[in-house]
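User: Second chain of the day. Same drill as before.
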Amino acid sequence: MPLFRLWKEDAATFGIWQVTESNLQLRRCLIASLPYDEELSHLRAACRQTEYLAVRVLLRALLGEEKQIGHLDSGKPYLCDGSWRISISHTKGYVAVALHPAAEVGIDIEQVHERVRGVATHFVRSDELPGFSCLSPSDQLYALLLHWSAKETIFKVLGCSNVDFREHLRIFPFALATEGSFQAQEYRTLSQQQFTVSYLLHPHFVCTTTLAIAR
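Assistant: Same format as last time:
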């Protein structure tokens, strides 16, 4: 199970792992006395079990020790010992984890797939993606995926319910590159927070990350 990428930014730690092992091999990587098997028993689909195991193996690789992950009623993950803030994402063949000792942190990873074109009107605003028609088909696909992924990442950091990705979240125009960052803003809360979203493009996926701005 190769560690695809590990990086740090503003006290945050981020990791992406390419999943190549079987579930049995992944389980053998986890040796702490934590309720892995009990929690796995509630996951019937093999792919869900793979995601569960791979995330925890990646977490161990990032921290050098195993931690128990809990979930709020909203589904938001947290470390049961409160040592780090955590965000988790997964897509076909990859899992991603973000950690920060104090600030809310978000990460999202999305498979490169054409289906995003069919739902773009549900999350792209009229003031986003100027010059979209001039982009190559490949760049159009990556631009749409980044807008969706970035809004997922911001949604995770916001921790609010009833967030409309088109009405409440805006991505400001940026020049597409293999990796970089762009600005975004939310209109769901009174503070209307601004975010810097970092991104990475890969032939198989796009990944975005962000941190809550300290106030």
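The CA atoms of residues 16 and 96 lie 4 Å apart.

User: Great, on to the next one.
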